[in-house]
Design goal:
This protein has 194 residues and is α/β, with parallel strands linked by helices. It has a single domain, classed as Hexapeptide repeat proteins (UDP N-Acetylglucosamine Acyltransferase, domain 1, 3 Solenoid). The protein is built from five helices and 15 strands. The strands form three sheets. Strands 3-6-9-12-14-15 form a six-stranded mixed β-sheet. Helix 3 runs antiparallel to helix 4. One of its GO terms (molecular function) is serine O-acetyltransferase activity. One of its GO terms (cellular component) is cytoplasm. This is Serine acetyltransferase. It is an enzyme of class 2 (transferase).
Length: 194
């Protein structure tokens, strides 16, 4: 019974986070039924549990079914935090050794990809509260600190400090005011948006 309560609490948490971040809906029901990003995240949570339990082939098959249904590819080995939201979803790729913190938001076309063919930590780590704009590519074992923001279509191959913005190809980093609210600063730089 406790497991069911935790699962339902997690679903509610994901729904509330999605509704809060998506001005196109204000309904949990609509979000639950019509958000491919949420469907991909929920399927990932199941496939990740299977992966950790050693059922790797079934986990991969489930993740591929989710990819076909949602257009979002999340490797079952990736570690995803709470209240993660993928807006629009289509074309998002998250690699096996990626680590995503709590309250992270990705837009469509984002890649959290590797830069090595070796079986090592080769995908990015995103801290809590990170926002990544449409089409951005975060490549390699890089760290995006708490509250970092990545602009649309940026290519990031180096660490981005907490409370900083990375835009361009290759991405250039500028720091945010430490006292600023990271969500409010999203409106300050049009390169962040889709």
């Amino acid at each position: 019974m406790a497991l069911l309560g935790r699962l339902l609490g997690g679903v509610r948490e994901d729904l509330d986070a999605a509704v809060a971040r998506d001005p196109a809906t204000s309904s949990r029901l609509e979000m639950a039924l019509a958000s491919p990003g949420l469907h991909a995240v929920w399927t990932h949570r199941v496939s990740h549990a299977m992966w950790k339990a050693g059922a790797r082939l079934p986990a991969r098959l489930l993740s591929q079914a989710a990819r076909a249904a949602t257009g979002v590819e999340i490797h079952p080995g990736a570690q995803i935090g709470r209240r993660f939201f993928i807006d629009h979803g289509m074309g998002v790729v998250i690699g096996e050794t990626a680590e995503v913190g709590d309250d992270v938001m990705l837009y469509h076309g984002v890649t959290l990809g590797g830069r090595s063919m070796e079986p090592v930590k080769r995908h990015p780590t995103l801290g809590d509260g990170v926002t990544v704009g449409a089409g951005a590519k975060i490549l390699g074992d890089v760290l995006l600190g708490h509250g970092a923001q990545v602009g649309a279509n940026a290519v990031v191959t180096k660490d981005v400090p907490s409370m900083a913005v990375a835009t361009g190809i290759p991405a250039k980093v500028r720091r945010l005011d430490a006292a600023a609210d990271p969500q409010a600063t999203l409106y300050d730089d049009p390169a962040i948006w889709i």
